[in-house]
Design goal:
There is one protein chain. This protein is α+β, with helices and mostly antiparallel strands and 63 residues long. The protein is built from 1 helix and 4 strands, in the order ββββα.
């Protein structure tokens, strides 16, 4: 995995505030664009599990 620039979700459209993601040194980093100093870092496997659970609706009861 190579280091990448911050990318925002295509679901964000043209809004300024969104979740952004990048890879750094083999890990995945996430941040909210309006709070760029707070960064969540995780492994690719954990991030993949989060995406899978989200797509499966495992967190829908929190909405």
């Amino acid at each position: 995995m190579t280091n990448t620039e911050w990318q925002k979700s295509t679901f964000s459209g043209s809004t300024e505030y969104c979740v952004e993601i990048r890879t750094v040194d083999g890990e995945v980093e996430l941040r909210e664009s309006d709070d760029a100093h707070t960064i969540l870092r995780t492994t690719p496997a954990t991030f993949a599990a989060l995406l899978h659970a989200t797509k499966a609706g495992e967190f829908d009861h929190h909405a």
